Each structure stands twice: as structure tokens, then as C-alpha cells.
């Protein structure tokens, strides 16, 4: 007589608890990984927001950062036109669509799986042909330009920071060129040299400019978010 098949005792991941966690998990093998890659992977495994993103079907933990910002400023609404710069893997666009946005176009150098009704361009944003194509696909001037762009790093802190600042400036110049009066701009930035100058430039074009660090942003990270509202017009 054969034994009945055993039930698999497998539970879906809980995502942990915000108030406290058990012993951190460690990867069983670090073969062919650098120390920094190993540390990043272990941090992802033990990150409650990363686990929560997986459970809820978001493509990245960054979804919670833009969700918190939108909870405060209410950018995402039916009828709003949105441009997402550096959208891969798509967490910000997911939240925008979930909250009622239907007119949204995004661009990234990397391929991104479809996120209907969003239109996605695989293109270099700094290509002069990119900006006109984004607006043409959107069908009009946006109410919101958001940027989560980040450059490829080379490991030289000063050079990497200059590249980050350069991308923020490019996103800012684009926003000033295309936004409707009263529109808004959100961009990921990093604390350090140049941040004050960027804020000052934004204040020339927007009525209110804030520097925000969402709860979902790791406390040991230098990332912040510039939120500029009330575009004054060109």
C-alpha cells in the first residue's frame, strides 16, 4: 500500500514587520559576487519594503516612495498627463496607473515590460529626439514630470555625483520647457555638493520647492526627493 502524498508546508513570504524583525537572513553562497554586491543582496532580502513590494506585485520598493509623496501632494489623478523619466523597472508608473492616471509616457535606457496604458520608450533621454517624442506620444503638455534617473557609476565619488547632478539638471530643464502652468516636478537627488544650487534654480520656476525623504527611503541612504509645485510658466 503506497503512502498518500505529503502536503507541502510552504507559506508565502509575510514581508516582515515594520516594528521589528527576527535574525537577518544571509545568502548561503557569495560565489562570484563582490562584497558590495553581497551586502546589497542581503539588504534587499531583509528589507521590509522590498518584501512588501514583492507581495503586492510592485516592481520595486520605489513604489512606496512615490506613493508617500503622492499621498501628500495628490499628483496622480484621472485626467493628469504624466512623464516618467528613468522609469525602469516601472514602480512609479505602476502607482500612477493604480491611482487613476491613464495618460502617461516613460523612457529608460533599459527595456521595461509593458505597463498598459503607459507608453514606454527605450531611449536615451539626453538624445535631442527624445523630448519631442515624449510629448508627441503624451498628446499635450504634462501636469507632472517625475524623474528617478540615475547614471551608470564608475566608483569615483566626485565624478559619479557630477553625473547625477547633470541628469537632474536635464530633467529640470525638460520640465521647465514642457510643463503646463501650475504643474509639478519630482526628482530623486542625493545630498551633497550642488543640491542647494539645484533647489535655488527650482525656486525660480516654481512657487513651492521642498526637499523630502520618504519613510521608504533607507535611512543610511543619502537620497532625497525634490518636490516642486506651482510651475510659474515659461
Description of the structure:
The protein has a seven-stranded mixed sheet with strand order 3-2-1-4-5-7-6, with helices on both faces. The protein is of the alpha/beta class and 234 residues long. The protein has helices spanning 35-45, 48-56, 62-73, 91-98, 130-138, 157-178, 195-205; strands at 81-85, 103-108, 119-122, 144-147, 184-190, 206-212, 223-231. The radius of gyration is 20 Å and the shape is globular. Helix 6 (157-178) links the parallel strand 4 and strand 5 (184-190). It contains seven helices and seven strands; from the N terminus they run αααβαββαβαβαββ. Helix content is 35%, strand content 18%. The protein has a single domain (62-231), classed as Rossmann fold.
Would you summarize the structure shown here?
The termini are far apart.
Order of helices and strands: HHHEHEEHEHEHEE
Beta strand % = 15-25%
Cα Rg:
20 Å
Give the overall form. globular
What is the count of DSSP helices, taking H or I runs of 4+ residues?
Answer: 7
Tally of strands: 7
Helix content: 25-40%
